[in-house]
Structure formats: C-alpha cells, structure tokens
Design brief:
Length: about 400
Amino acid sequence: MTAPLSGPPHEGQPREGTLWEGVPGKNDTLHILHLEDSDLDHELVTMSLEGEVPWTLGIERVEDEAGFLEALARRTPHLILSDFSLPTYDGLSAFRAAHERCPAVPFIIVTGAMGEEVAVDTLRQGVTDYILKQRLERLGSAVRRAMSEVEARARRRDAEREVRTLNESLRVRLEEVERLRGVAERQSQRLEVQARQLEEALNLQKTFLAETSHELRTPLTALHGYLRRAEREAGGSQTLQDAQRVAENMTRLVNDLLQLSRGELVQGIEMHFINLGNVLRQVGRDFGVRAPEQNQEIVGDPGRLTQVFANLVNNAVRVCGSADLVHIELSNIPGAVEVRVVDRGPGVPDHIKPRIFDKFFRGKEAGSAGLGLTIAQQVVTSHGGSIDVTDTPGGGATFRVRLPLPEEDEE
C-alpha cells in the first residue's frame, strides 16, 4: 500500500522546511522520494517494495532536478531512491544535493546499467547502495538494511552523546579532586600530614551533618521549654498540646534525618496498643484535611505513625496547593488495616513510582533533602507493614499504608 507525499503534511509527517531523520514506527509510513523519469520503472520499483518492508509506503516521484530540489526543500524523506542517468540530471548530482541538505538520509541508486568502476566510485562518494533494475528483488532487503543502519547510527549517536556527558562530568570531578589534592599538597610537607588531611576530608560530611543536627536541635529544645512554661502559666489547652506534639515530631524528624544521612536505620520504635483513628484525625486537624471518623485499634508507635501520615499529607497538600484536594481514608482488608492519603493533584509519573521511596530522591517540586518518604517507608516496615503509591481514579496520587491487625492472643 502506497500513499503519495505531495500535498499538505499529514499527522506524523515533517513540516515544510524541516529535516526528518530516523526510522518510522512499525505502523507508520516510510516516506520515499523517488527520482525517476520513467513511469514504468517507477511502477516496478513501487511493486518490488510492496510487502517487502515493514512499513506503509508513501512514495513521491519527481522527474528532474527542479522537482527533486523542490521536494527536498518542502520536507525531508526517510529514504531517497534515484535513477543514475536522467535526460537533464544524474544520480551523483542528486546525491550531492541531498547530502548537502540532509546527510543522514539513505540514498540508493536504482539504475538500468552501471559499470563496476562507476558503482565502486558512487559507494566511495557516500551513496548508501546501488541496485540494478534487472535485480529489483534485492531492493526490499537493501531498503531494510539502509533503514537499520540509520537506526544504528541514531543509537550510536545517542550513546556517544551520553559518553561525552559522562566524560565531561568525570572531567569536572577529576578537576575538583586535583584541586583538592593540590591544596593538600601545598599545605603539607610530610606524608603523615597529607594522610590526616585526607581523613579530615572523608569525615567532613559527618562533621557537617552532626553540626547541622545540633543547630536544628538547639532551637527545638528551647521551643520545648517555652511550651512547657506556657502550659504551667496558662494551664493546659489543646493548642499547647498540639504545639508540643508538633515540636516533638520535629525533634524526632531531625534525629531521623541524621541517622539516615549516616546510613543508619530509623530507631526508637515503641510499640503498644493505639487507636489509629485518633492518630489520623489529629493529622487531619493539623493540616486541615478530612479524616475518617471510625476507630481502629492496632499495635504501633503513635508518634512514629503520626510522623508517617503527617509527611504524606504535607507532601500531598504542598503538591496540590490546597488542603481541600486532599483527604484520608481508612478501611479493613484481610489481616490488615489500610490507610489511604488521597489527593487530586498532578499525580506521580509511572517512571518515578519505583524510585519515590529511595533515599535522597527528590521529585521536580521537592523542597527537602529527599528523606521524608524514606523515613516513612522504614517506619512502616518496622511495624510489619507496607507502603506504596498508585494513581487516584480521575487524577492524582494515592499513598497506601497497610499495617497488620493485632493477633487474637494479643487482644
């Protein structure tokens, strides 16, 4: 089946004046520009290709230099077929014109007669292949081979680009290493001094994290003190209790961040019977999102679970831009309870989902170090549960946390 190239470009075709390199998809059209002055030869070429290539054929025929150059200016085909000798033009001149405008497009000469020396010369100048009109049964395989070479070049070009990028990154890193090494050598006169400086450099990250953690914990400790004094002076209130709880969660989060940055697991899980419904309603009140009314008793650490759901709800509200687009659901499944933090935001792309819980992974709109979901996953795993993310029907993301129900002998 063939379709002419003339006329306005269809969907998937290049626009006028643009280059169109590469291989079409399995169900797409292979666009061929055929330079041939003989109606019969054009028909024979078309018939020899039908059923021999895995694409629908779109063949545009031109007969002379003017038509050929005009067709190239209008759009670039996937492949060019050309007779070698025409009344006012020739195949090599056509090849040179095509190579100047679209060097990546394969160019195959289809001719009635060609001496061996001429054939070798055309290949030496860069022509992709040549086929004798008496052997048109070879044309299909020649076209498939030419398009395979185009695809291979594209892949090689992508690989080379990636290698160049990696080499540039390596060069920058090596320059930084050399710079640091030069500083160490200039400041050091003996091998022992160089060894100490190297050890200091290796410990720099741990020192930075420890100092950062201390700087964060100091104002939190003062905040705890102010809240306790306020409670003594003004009496207990729900607002002060909420503020104390949030301050405790922030302190726990700072400690968790420090542990994870050092490669340690989240610690300090204290398990006992809790009402999970109360935990979810408290998080809902903190962030202004709708939470379930039902109660559900499980065995867990209320502070750690609050940390998990607060992180999920906070992320959802930040991404959606409004708490009205976020709510919490609670339901029972066989042997477990499932909590769902549902949002109507932009959702999580499929290629991001497998990595979203990785340490230091940051999404496009991240505003943190990329540890919040890692902490949530470790806390849930420590409770014997699981956490994942799926699409919200109608748009958005749903984070699902499954926690085991108490065994009968525990109740």
